Amino acid sequence: MKLMERARKYLFSTKRSEELFDLRLELTSEVGRIRSTLLRWLADPAMRSRWLHVPRGPSGATDTPLHRACELLDEALAPDLVPLVSPFLIEGSEEVRRAIALLLGSIGSAACVPPLHGLLRDQDPWVRLHCVMGLERARKAGRLEPACIGALFAALATQLSQPLGAKGAVLLLLSIDQGKALATFHDLGYFEPGSSALEPLLTAMNELGILLPRAEVLSLLDKLEAEAHSQPGAAQGPALQMLGGHRAHADRRRLERLMVDGGALSVYAARALMAWHGLTGLFDRIVAHEREVGFAGLSSGERMWAATEALHAEINNGGLAQYFFNSWGDQWRVALAGLQVMDDPERADILQAALGRFGPDGPSEDREARYEQLRRLHRKQDHPFRDLDDRYYAVRLPFEVATARWVIANQQLFG
Questions:
Q1: How far apart are the C-alpha atoms of 315 and 89, rounded to whole Å?
Q2: Separation CA 371–CA 377 (nearest Å)
Q3: Can you tell me the distance from the alpha carbon of 343 to that of 338, in angstroms, rounded to the nearest whole number?
Q4: How far from chain centre, in Å, is Cα 349?
Q5: Calculated CA dihedral for residues 343, 346, 350, 356, nearest 10 degrees
Q6: What is the pLDDT of residues 217-233, one digit of tens each?
Q7: How many angstroms separate the Cα of 403 from the Cα of each of 18, 83, 297, 324, 390?
Q8: What is the pLDDT of residue 226?
Q9: Distance CA 232, CA 225 (A)
Q10: What are the CA-CA distances from residue 337 to residues 181, 195, 306, 399 (Å)?
Q11: pLDDT per residue over 320-361, tens digit each?
């Protein structure tokens, strides 16, 4: 079958795209050869209704021929796509508008501004979110033209008051022009305690390491704490975290007290204290170091922290079964030792109980052998760790508090 015949089969087949996975992979690798024909088909008025045909099945609305074309063309983005996909915005569903919003944002050229202006005002919040996601992809790929982001700056700033996409819009605007973005946010009142934009704004600023002046943070915290007595707000935690970034001696006791008995604020106090001690980004540095020297080349403290962080992430994502299935399960001895030295006895007991279900010798430290052990456990019981997963999720001591407390007290173990 010729290449273009295979492309037509993939795009307009009544089968689900998942059933044509191999064909999609082939066409993705050949998109340069089929691109001009795809554009000619998109421009053909006689084919308009075929592009929007919804296949049968629960995922049909997100698997139209136009969706499939957008996925293929994502590998060959250019401004010449704009006039070809924009007309489908008028007659397309919300799912179609989302796909086009992502595609146009990912192109990031000045030609995309008119349709993106309309999409950023779309009634569907997921359409607006896909605009932001696409523009962020263009920025990371170096395709985002100054004329495009400049024309969309004000429209993007209004996304901060929306429940979806606020953090992404903040990250995008601050990365493009920090000074202009901060001035715009102040002018729009986003730094006021009652603003719905405040929490995602402060969260994004913390992620980028951008701090408001300490006096402004303290004033904001006072206002937020006064409001919290009647109506607790989500912005109080990120504001507290930002305070730690200033590393002022006068703030240390306050942060230490809140990490111990701050309730919902304890995690943010832990992050603030990590920043106060200059330890922000330590885990990322450990991961980068591990890539260079291997796990065995890390210091003892680095190994224990990396192993416990991986354990926690795997369990939160898919439970203990996922942890033991994946490669980080090789390091269960280090993870157990880490939980024990971090004085996190409840999580250590849960891991110990899980190890016992593999028999007296515990799980193998070889992934292939451990996979066979897991298969035997699953043959006996569908969810052999479900009760332990539930216990893990119910632990009251926040994991970030336990790790931050230990890291801060043992900084000498970290290179």
A1: 41
A2: 10
A3: 9
A4: 30
A5: 70
A6: 999 999 998 887 655 56
A7: 41, 52, 21, 21, 21
A8: 86
A9: 8
A10: 46, 44, 12, 15
A11: 999 999 999 999 999 999 999 999 999 999 999 999 999 999
Averaged confidence pLDDT in the chain: 92
The two tokens of residue 86 are: 């924009």
% residues pLDDT > 90 (the chain): 75
- By CB atoms closer than 10 A (0-12, 13-18, 19+), residue 2 is exposed
Longest dimension (CA), the chain: 74
Report d(CA 346, CA 334) in Å as an integer: 16
Cα separation of 330 and 368, whole Å?
10
Confidence at residue 1, expressed as pLDDT on a 0 to 100 scale:
60
Counting Cα atoms < 13 Å in the Cβ hemisphere of 299 gives 13
Q: Around Cβ 277, how many Cβ atoms within 10 Å?
A: 16
- ∠40-45-47 over CA atoms, to 5°? 75
Cα 29 from Cα 75, distance rounded (Å):
9
Output the six-digit token pair for 347.
């999580």
pLDDT of residue 185: 94
Distances 69 to 181, 269, 334 between C-alpha atoms, Å: 35, 47, 47
CA distances from 331 to 186, 240, 391 (A): 48, 34, 21
Question: Cα-flanking dihedrals φ and ψ of residue 190, to 5°?
Answer: -75, -15
Tokens 């439970």 map to which residue?
319
Residue 251, CA distances (Å) to 241, 242, 407 in order: 11, 11, 19
What does DSSP assign to residue 56?
Answer: S
Residue 240: both structure tokens together: 């507290």
Give the residue ranges of DSSP H helices in 246-331. Answer: 252-261, 266-276, 282-293, 300-325
pLDDT digits (tens, 9 = 90+) for 264-282: 899 999 999 999 999 988 8
The residue type of 365 is E
Q: What are the structure tokens assigned to 411, written together? A: 């900084």
Residue 15 has pLDDT above 80, yes or no: no
Spatial distance between the Cα atoms of 67 and 12, rounded to a whole number of angstroms:
11
Checking if the pLDDT of 31 tops 70, the result is yes
Q: Is 262 helix (H, G, I), strand (E, B) or coil?
A: coil
Helix (H, G, I), strand (E, B) or coil at 234: coil
Dist. CA 173–CA 179, nearest whole Å: 10
pTM greater than the 0.85 cutoff:
no
Residues 55-106 pLDDT 10s: 776 666 788 999 999 999 998 999 999 999 999 998 878 999 999 999 999 9
